[in-house]
Amino acid sequence: MAEPGTEPHEISLRAAEVAADVTEAEHPQDRRRLVAAFTRAVSSGARLAGRGTRAAQRRARAARRGAGSGSAWLAAQVTAMAPRLRVRDQAALREQFGGKSAEDIADALVDGAARAAATAGGVAGVWAALPTLPAFPAEIAAETLVLVGIEIKLVAELHEAYGMPAQGNLAERMSAYVAAWAHRRGVYMIPGGVVLAAGSPLARLLRRRLAARAGRSAFSLGPLLTGAAAGAILNGRETRRLGQDIRRDLRRRALEAD
Known about the structure:
Helix content is 72%, strand content 0%. By secondary structure, it is mostly helical. The chain has one domain (8-257). It starts with 7 loop residues before the first helix and ends with a helix.
């Protein structure tokens, strides 16, 4: 997967901002505007690689065949993005949601994240309908980073809603939430902390998860508007499923602690 034209730290920072803003946006048009602006920014680097229709279609086919080839680059971006995500703590969530119960807050968090993910998939898919197509690898990277940012933020805020936040400093907490995203379960700290070193079992799992997520993003870049519709449905469904998996694990742990 080719890197977009922006610098690594710049794209991870932008992705973190967009993921947080689109999740917390109240209106659909605001969510679409935020994701579309990020996609346009990333596509500016893609244009440098060529904008011919045939060339873009070849890149699209290559991306679909080998969406996991850039998983190491994506993993580095996700690791850099995570500490930049804006995560609301339990007090902020209770204030925002009017003192609702943890279950009600969790419902709202999962619904909001699913809507945000659906928007991200739909906007990226629309680019595939343009007469002159962007370079798909960059578009896949943009969509995947925003989606994963939305989901890691969801994982972190579900832990906060249930009063079970990860421990440690910011970097340690966010690494734990990245690991929870990869494992699709609540945070489980091991002696010595979370190991995201290259070649570790967790790093390999993270890359596999990212390759799968990028593969779904490639699928959303289908012909005409069918890609947008498929991307919206698949991404929203997958994010909702992840949220429910995390909730079940947190509920189970809460019962075991009583």
